[in-house]
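[job 4471] stage=fold_predict status=RUNNING
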Amino acid sequence: MMKETYKADLKPELSLYEGLLGGDLSKSIVSVTNQIDMIPTDWTLSLWIGAVEKVSRVKRNILLPQMLSKLKQNYDYIFIDVPPTINVFTNNAIMASDFISIVLQTQKQSYTSSLKTATHLGELREQYNGSFQLVGVILYLMKPRAKVDTEISAQAKDFFWRRGLFKLN
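[job 4471] inference complete, writing structure tokens
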């Protein structure tokens, strides 16, 4: 979509996968506009999970934060979009983040998954002394008058607010 919207060449010198393997993401960045840079990815990113299996379990979850720390001074914001799965890349994205939002489709299975994600966030925060903060749960595909959607929305609000997961420092 970005390629078509901005008519930009999104072919980096090194793919995200190659940048991650080399420990340097600077050659994976492409300029979309004068104010927006991005690191595009493709299917090869799925190979990174296997590539980091040789790294100790503790260190493999903090590789991305170390690489992004070298780039942070060049940017006001860095957004990381990951699929709703728990794996080593998602863990790295979480640990590299200051703020996190969870996307929740108002269905029972999605709600149950969001609870598991919240528990996982707490475990990562504790294990790594993480400083990231959960700043929101984004409801999508919600029908405001649908019974199940309304119930799931209320349950999510109760769960996340009652546990103080939104408290900002």
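[job 4471] summary: The first strand starts at residue 30 and ends at 31.
[job 4471] exit 0
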